[in-house]
């Protein structure tokens, strides 16, 4: 039995989410993608502006707070988009203080339930190679690597 439920974000929540997500995404690009801070920030800003034109989520995008049933506390976020191949997971984020408690696994189960409700044949996602915790979770849940981008730093 899941300890979590999904609560759809309001327009105000989405407006607050975009800058926070931009920062999180830029950190990931810098840390795991090897980009400079400035270039990572610029890419994150471009990508998020494209994903949220005018600061709003376009049709087909679904943004939720992860709510712990027992307390009503917001413990994370989930953002996915419907597309012609199924569902694309953009973000699943559990608050740092709540990690390691199985909430990510429960959130992924909620995503699968949502995808099935929509009749989606698959869930796809992208994960940074250095994010071993997330990669391990996805593998444990039956996700496979369909494509791998590799790089080598040159001095």
Notes on the protein architecture:
- By secondary structure, the protein is an alpha+beta fold.
- The protein has a single domain (4-140), classed as Gcn5-related N-acetyltransferase (GNAT) (Aminopeptidase), CATH 3.40.630.30.
- Helices cover 41% and strands 23% of the residues.
- The chain has four helices and five strands.
- The chain has helices spanning 11-33, 37-51, 103-118, 132-140, and strands spanning 4-8, 61-68, 74-83, 86-94, 123-125.
- Strand 4, helix 3 and strand 5 (123-125) form a beta-alpha-beta unit.
- Helix 1 runs antiparallel to helix 2.
Distance between the amino and carboxyl termini: 51 Å
Shape annotation:
globular
Strand content: 15-25%
Mean model confidence by pLDDT:
94
Low-confidence stretches: none
List keywords for this structure.
single chain, 155 residues, alpha+beta, Aminopeptidase, 5-stranded mixed β-sheet, 4 helices, 41% helix, globular
Blueprint of the fold:
Elements: E1 4-8, H1 11-33, H2 37-51, E2 61-68, E3 74-83, E4 86-94, H3 103-118, E5 123-125, H4 132-140
Brief write-up:
The chain is built from 4 helices and 5 strands; from the N terminus they run βααβββαβα. It has 155 residues and is of the alpha+beta class.
